[in-house]
Write the structure tokens for this entry.
Amino acid sequence: MKTMRASVLRGVRDIALEERPVPKPGPREVLVQVTSVGTCGSDTHYYEHGRIGSFVVDGPLVLGHEAGGVVVARGSAATRHALGQRVAVEPGVPCFTCPQCRGGRYNLCPDMRFFATPPIDGAFCEYVAVHEDFAYAVPDSISDDAAGLLEPLSVGVWACRRGRVGPGARVLITGAGPIGLVAAQTARAFGATEVVVTDVNPRRLALAAEVGATGTIDVRQTALASSGYVPDVLLECSGVPSAAAEAIRTVGRAGRVVLVGMGGDELALPLSHVQNFEIELTGTFRYANTWPTAIDLAASGAVDLDRLVTHRFGLADVEQALTASARDEAAVKAVVRPQE
Ligand SMILES: [Zn+2]
Ligand SMILES: [Zn+2]
């Protein structure tokens, strides 16, 4: 095999299949034949706008960063995985040497090379080369789709860690999109006894309840403030500043707020509440050291990732995958199967 099919973003709303050389794995890399790639809001954003904040697509770019596959070749010094091993791909490789990397916060490495973030190509293609330490062996109890969706699960794991969700915690999750849904399951697995999820989409709230939320609030019908719920931890997954501000007002004394959702620019803080209750507020940027936990959560059944998959497309239909949630209210997660 010398060439492969790749789905390439060539401009705003312009994606085409191209023949590209199959990547050659470097010494410590493995070549992964991609079996499933989840589509993410960030992929759709690049497709529709050509940029996310300061990241601008200024040349052809392969999108997709939620990938699972099979190891089919190894670099000269790669020994971690056997050929044929099914793996999940962690899509960002840091520099390993800067202060953030050495401090264990490699997600904050300024020299991170991250899939589908200009100019680094992603995984909407047949093969990717990845550092062997960033390919994780997965057991057969984890499906091909679920292997890819360990990436959004990692976002949920990181959010729960940042919010110190533990046994007995009362958690509020704003937004029942894919991240809110994995965060809810992770919070339960981490021991939270109450996990209340809000959204404006009743189908998504029903799904949240199905996968383990102990309560749901349709904020079109019921104002959050009138629910009387006082969480210890807020995982803000909606990315809607007004929803975030309203939710922060409900957080109890010495509570934690984790801002996960993206989309807003500025957030008006209820300052006296944050001060009087000594609320800790943090952002999250991707994740660090989350795949082993994510694999255990999925393999044990504590988190069901397959339940989130509502649409599947071949490599020729990436545009359909990226626009599925705009066209179908029932869409949660669309995945691309590059071998189909
Ligand atoms: Zn993503
Ligand atoms: Zn670094």
Notes: Residues 40, 42, 65-66, 151-152 surround zinc ion (ligand 1) (CB under 6 Å).
